[in-house]
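Re: beginner question about structure tokens

> Can someone show what the tokenized structure looks like for a real chain? I only ever see the sequence side.

Sure, here's an example I had lying around. Input first:
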Amino acid sequence: MRTILFTSIGRRVQLVRHFIENGWDVIGADADPSESASSHFVRNVYKVPLFREPGYFEALRELCIREKVSVLVPLYEPELIGMAQRKESFREIGVQVLVSDEAALARCLDKYELAQFLTSNGIATPATYPDLSRVDSESKWVVKPRTGMGSKDVYIADAQDAASCYNKVKDAIVQRFVRGQEYSIDAFVNEHGQILSIVPRKRLDVRAGEVAKSVTVVDDELTRLTAELLSHLQLIGPLTIQGIKEASTGMFFFIEVNPRFGGGVPLTIQSGIPYSHFIAGHYPSETVGLHPYQGGLKMLRYDEAVFVTE
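And the corresponding structure tokens:
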């Protein structure tokens, strides 16, 4: 049985269950295992320093050696660059770190740089600027941090309010607001650059930046556009892509690319995507076409608790 290590395992119970149910020995790393719900489902969650503290990556490396880990999956976006910089160090001890290369990551994690890159490659994305100099009154604007995840410090404002919102946000950018249906698209690219799956899903309800209600859709054009996007980005592993289909034109605009497992991935797993097999290498590289999935499958998330005695 192969061992897989997830970092910042916290609340990712449904994700780790998928791997357990498909034959993986699952362990986790967390700064406070006693506060991790997932610790009650995996074999063990080990205490490590906080990501920004000295010794974090060294602690993960030592844990991998001790537990004979085969695959390391980082779930916390701010640590991805550091993981990419150390991929070779982990490879030397027989550990595959499921993360893209540093340059590809940096391009996606900087939302302004991503917008510039997409535009230069002819991929539709809303007009995005690093300051207010080109904000006009013809539309609303999204003001958000240049880096980061979730919905914290994200504002939708008209031109007259954009300045006050901009001044509230550290290292802000402004992006033209697109009115329409929001989508998340879960994809997986193997180490050879082969796209194994693309699953679009409508975002029906979002709480604190994470999807609460969602439904998978089969959309050949959106799948084609996503494959074209991925051909430019040179990413590997699990990806969650955000975009909007404009109501007035039907045109699809890509907004963000998150190079990690997204919070709504349990729906994609339930629709038939075998991430555990992809990562184990059980999906032959010579297989032609994308893995099938169930369209029209809706996820309605609810709160569930683990009870512990202190």
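Each token stands for a local structural state, so reading them left to right follows the chain. The longest strand covers residues 195-207.
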